Automatic annotation (TrEMBL):
Residue ranges of every copy of the DEAD-box RNA helicase Q domain listed in the record: 147-175
Reactions accelerated catalytically: ATP + H2O = ADP + phosphate + H(+)
Coiled coil: none
Organism this protein belongs to: Nyssa sinensis
Composition bias, Basic and acidic residues: 95-104
Sequence intervals crossing the membrane: none
Residue ranges annotated as motif Q motif: 147-175
Family per record: Belongs to the DEAD box helicase family. DDX3/DED1 subfamily.
EC number: 3.6.4.13
Protein name listed in UniProt: RNA helicase
Length: 604
């Protein structure tokens, strides 16, 4: 009989407590330090000497066709989407070199840090907001969605962490994506900002590593490391955030996540890597550096996740991604499992992404590239010269609506780094506490700015697009597009910094004649999200050429958004459903995604 998720978590907690587990001490119960260089595969770590034999191979979803020269790439660790069972779990209370380095409790901060806005509660998520959300899946044999975490065989240690995160039930993208990934399938997933995509790709990876039997090769060189999973994201801050999340989800599972990103001392990151790594979270530039120094090998990668995948595959990043994924030693599609996630997926990028996928499932939760209805969007006509005083009026009005005596957080997007500095300076001399985040600031300054903003000490953050994607900052009540972006997808990501996890938010855009190319797609997007479109904007939309502000979201309403379903793309008949990796459309489309070539390192 299947017990409820809460029951099994409670049981796991009791069992763990009986076994000497203490949630707060970060202790792992090991007293002797293993030698540093001896690799212990995750599924064998912290087992008593006479541990159980490994779980038998699963019958489903064996991928064949490519046999790595020296690596055991059988798919025996995969659960093939079954929801029951539980055999073969490695609920280990330690892991990498834990005799030397005690695992820090990533949940401790949540309890101890001053929380000016009250605890960051996830229990209050408004799931009703997602009830009627349209979902589309396409591809062969799509595993069915689940309604609860209890239905998913994630393993007790991970379930315990889910409970610690106060996740009561899966969000819609998690309901669909987790069974697909646990079934060993490649996935292209599109779901609205703030809807829980990070957990949707982290849970199957952690669970797969816990359950898997990935045979580690003896190291080539003492200092080379062999992660089993790679999670790439476009910005340093986002990689750090994903790493923080991954550490929470993998706490006391024996799975170790490490982050590597540019702008921070590489030696420190190298030392961290040397302590062992199962999941490497990285920005592309720093990873290329590590690969070129022969300090990381991708030979053992079983899971590849690209967060903000459309950004990762646009012209700015595509060459680096191709280098990492196709030109180093990473196993090919069909051997590794690949997961692409974003809130926006232009068709050109979908097409390009097929180079990295094998017989994948396309999943769209909500309308592809649409914003969530939880965000109230306002567009105001403001001449360039009036923008500052208009912003001032908004901020004054907002002061009245402070939360717990503090001003609600406001994120102001501008076009340029100089513009960010100058606006921040002006706000400060006018009595508003503001800071900035952009590519010209040192990494230390960027991180300090983000910390100060998050804590509420500096409630206004002026940002370039470096902060547009992925950042999950609780209590951002208002996003102001002081300068609108040229691309509607960037607008979607920017406003998505508010209205997250079922909460509501406000987004105000300053529009003037300089933005007329965006009018049409902006009006469409607002209409789709049930927002009031001002009559003057509709007039601009009607006048504007469709070229400049052309929606890259695929056109039309929800449905048929998988580009393989579009007859104009699907010239090869069943090719795209048949798992062929040879795109008929060339290796790299000329799609720029709104960024020119060579923009990579400013982000990375
Ligand atoms: N099942 C859940 N129950 C409650 N809260 C959740 C659940 N899953 C995720 N969350 C919370 O929702 C918030 C948003 O999640 P996340 O950052 O993964 O969104 P996202 O879809 O990746 O957004 P973006 O598109 O902006 O990157 C986070 O604070 C996360 O902790």
């Amino acid at each position: 009989m299947r017990t409820s998720w809460a029951d099994s978590v409670a049981a796991a907690e009791n069992a763990a407590a009986g076994g000497g587990y203490s949630a707060n001490n970060g202790g792992v119960g090991t007293t002797s330090a293993p030698t540093r260089s001896s690799y212990v595969p995750p599924h064998l770590r912290n087992r008593p000497p006479s541990s159980d034999p490994p779980a038998p191979p699963s019958s489903g979803n064996e991928r064949s066709g490519w046999v790595g020269p020296r690596i055991d790439h059988n798919r025996s660790g995969f659960s093939s989407g079954s929801h029951g069972g539980g055999g073969g779990w490695n609920n280990r209370t330690g892991g990498w070199d834990r005799g030397r380095e005690r695992e820090v409790n990533p949940f401790a901060d949540d309890d101890e840090t001053e929380q000016p806005f009250g605890e960051h509660e996830n229990t209050g998520i408004n799931f009703d907001a997602y009830e009627d959300i349209p979902v589309e899946t396409s591809g062969d044999n799509v595993p069915p969605p689940v309604n609860t975490f209890a239905e998913i065989d994630l393993g007790e240690a991970l379930n315990l962490n889910i409970r610690r995160c106060k996740y009561v039930k899966p969000t819609p993208v998690q309901r669909h994506a987790i069974p697909i990934s646990l079934g060993g399938r490649d996935l292209m997933a599109c779901a609205q900002t703030g809807s829980g995509k990070t957990a949707a790709f982290c849970f199957p990876i952690i669970s797969g590593i816990m359950k898997g039997q990935f045979i580690q090769r003896p190291p080539h060189g003492r200092r080379m490391v062999y992660p089993l999973a790679l999670i790439l994201s476009p910005t340093r801050e986002l990689s750090c955030q994903i790493h923080e999340e991954a550490k929470k989800f993998s706490y006391q599972t024996g799975v170790r996540a490490v982050v590597a990103y540019g702008g921070a001392p590489i030696n420190q990151q190298l030392r961290d890597l040397e302590r062992g790594v199962d999941i490497l979270v990285a920005t592309p530039g720093r990873l290329v550096d590590l690969l070129e120094r022969a300090r990381v090998s991708l030979e053992m990668i079983r899971y590849l996740a690209l967060d903000e995948a459309d950004r990762m595959l646009d012209m700015g990043f595509e060459p680096q991604i191709r280098k990492i994924v196709q030109q180093m030693d990473m196993p090919p599609p069909g051997i590794r499992q690949t997961m692409l996630f974003s809130a926006t997926f232009p068709k050109e990028i979908q097409r390009l992404a097929t180079d990295f996928l094998s017989n994948y499932i396309f999943l769209a939760v909500g309308r592809v590239g649409s914003s969530t209805d939880l965000i109230v969007q306002r567009v105001e006509f403001v001449h360039e010269s009036d923008k500052r005083s208009h912003l001032m009026d908004l901020l004054h009005a907002q002061r009245a609506n402070g939360v717990h005596g503090k001003q609600a957080l406001t994120l102001v997007f501008v076009e340029t780094k100089k513009g960010a500095d100058s606006l921040e300076h002006w706000l400060c001399i006018n009595g508003f506490s503001a800071t900035t985040i952009h590519g010209d600031r040192t990494q230390q300054e960027r991180e300090q700015a983000l910390r100060s903003f998050k804590s509420g000490n500096t409630p206004i953050l002026v940002a370039t697009d470096v902060a547009a994607r992925g950042l999950d900052i609780p209590h951002v009540a208002h996003v102001v597009n002081f300068d609108l972006p040229n691309d509607i997808d960037d607008y979607v990501h920017r406003i998505g910094r508010t209205g997250r996890a079922g909460k509501t938010g406000l987004a105000t855009a300053f529009f003037n004649e300089n933005n007329s190319s965006l009018a049409r797609s902006l009006a469409e997007l607002m209409q789709e999200s049930n927002q009031e479109v001002p009559a003057w904007l509709s007039r601009y939309a009607a006048r504007s050429s469709y070229v400049g502000g052309k929606s890259r979201r695929g056109g039309g309403r929800f449905g048929g958004r998988d580009f393989r379903r579009d007859s104009s793309f699907n010239r090869g008949g069943a090719d795209y459903y048949g798992g062929s990796n040879s795109s008929a459309y060339g290796a790299s489309g000329g799609y720029s995604g709104g960024y020119g070539p060579g923009v990579t390192s400013a982000w990375d």
